[in-house]
Specification:
single chain; about 80 residues; alpha+beta; two-stranded antiparallel ribbon; 1 helix; 4 strands; about 25% helix; binds zinc ion
Length: about 80
Amino acid sequence: MVINDLKQTCPRCRGGGHQPGFTVLGLSQINYDGRCPTCAGRGFLLTELGQDLLNLLRPFIEEMIEGDKPKPAPLPPGTSREKPA
Ligand SMILES: [Zn+2]
């Protein structure tokens, strides 16, 4: 498997990720944020296989992100999470 099995170059912006404007119902519209609306500025789209892999990995990714969060602040002195003996 190669990375190109998982993603494909966005056909709309051809990988650039930017689109200055687009045409809706024959009318030219300015694309105010400049990002390609099809790929959200990424320049590529996930293939079906890429989407499957993402869905497979998502729980692990979320776990990693959770693990990076700072730990809860320590309790003030004199208090304890333990029940009093
Ligand atoms: Zn695009």
